[in-house]
Design a protein that fits this description.
By secondary structure, this protein is of the alpha+beta class. It has 4 helices and 6 strands; from the N terminus they run αααββαββββ. The longest helix is centred in the middle third of the chain and has 18 residues, at 75-92.
Length: 163
């Protein structure tokens, strides 16, 4: 694995995060913009707490709109939160010449999710990125007591943007 150089992680995610952080309420603004850019992901109302190259921390507030019939957070809302965390971690590590496309996702539900949930993902770039490099990355979702409620494994295809 190669170390991520924050200077070369100059893709659009880091550019927008840096711009928003310079403003009051920057994390909230970034979260709202992300929801506008990816409307379906925006439906859960996730809050992007922190982004740096190869790292993302995203939270989800427990509310009626994300609950299921078992009085806990819906499984697909949890997967959505995990996808957001893995996507931000992966895409924040890439230079502007690279792109990432989600090509697979799976989840392991450990316990019912209630209360505020936080998803954390750490990602390291592979040594070499070709046209079809697939990389699996995990988001660990925890409740307020620190218990793991869900693990989301996403497979991202990394490659160079078409000319």
């Amino acid at each position: 694995m190669t170390q991520i150089n924050p200077v070369t992680a100059n893709g659009p995610i880091m550019a927008w995060w840096r711009r928003c952080q310079a403003l009051p309420g920057g994390a909230r603004l970034f979260s709202l913009m992300l929801g506008r850019f990816a409307p379906y992901s925006g439906t859960i109302g996730a809050r992007v707490e922190e982004v740096r190259p190869g790292y993302a921390r995203v939270s989800l507030r427990d509310r009626r709109g994300v609950r299921n019939h078992l009085d806990s957070i819906h499984a697909i809302a949890l997967v959505n939160l995990g996808e957001i965390a893995t996507g931000l971690a992966v895409l924040s590590a890439l230079s502007a010449e690279l792109r990432g496309i989600l090509v697979g996702i799976e989840a392991e539900y450990v316990k019912k999710a209630r209360g505020r949930i936080e998803a954390i993902t750490e990602f390291e770039l592979p040594d070499e990125i070709g046209e079809d490099t697939r990389y699996s990355v995990e988001a660990c979702l925890r409740d307020a007591s620190g218990d793991v409620v869900t693990r989301v494994r996403a497979t991202w295809q990394l490659g160079y943007r078409p000319a």
